[in-house]
Amino acid sequence: MPPLPKVMRISRDTPCYYLTSVSKDRLPVFRNDIIKEIVCKALDEARLSAGIMIFAYVIVHDHTPLITDSARSIADVLRSFGEGILWKMSLLSQIIEK
């Protein structure tokens, strides 16, 4: 991962993204502490593996908004975040089933 700039200035040339990930049918899936932890770890892994800067995020009961840099496309950011959550949720469901 390349070194981060000392100052990140948000401008028309270097915008930030405000993205919101919403649960299917707006179900309140983020009320459980285990699920919240999975989301936090997925965000951290996406940040580290894809080189995404995350400036802020909030876990709300049915969605998670976040502010990130624009070094990657919106699709790449959402894919990195979504893949991490899906992978961790599938592991969790396998553990619960056993």
Quick overview:
The protein has 98 residues and is of the alpha+beta class. Helix content is 43%, strand content 18%.
Describe the structure.
There is one protein chain. With 98 residues, this protein is an alpha+beta fold. The protein has helices at 33-50, 74-97, and strands at 16-22, 54-57, 63-69. Strand 2 and strand 3 form a beta hairpin. Helix 1 (33-50) crosses helix 2. The longest helix has 24 residues, at 74-97. The N and C termini lie far apart (38 Å).
Please give the radius of gyration in angstroms: 15 Å
Task: Give the integer mean of the pLDDT values.
Answer: 80
Structure summary, number of beta strands: 3
| Class of secondary structure makeup | alpha+beta
Major sheet strand order? 1-3-2
Question: From N to C, what is the helix and strand string?
Answer: EHEEH
Number of helices: 2
Task: Describe this protein with a few key phrases.
alpha+beta, 98 residues, 43% helix, 18% strand
Topology:
Elements (H helix, E strand, L loop, with lengths): L15 E7 L10 H18 L3 E4 L5 E7 L4 H24 L1
Antiparallel strand pairs: 1-3, 2-3
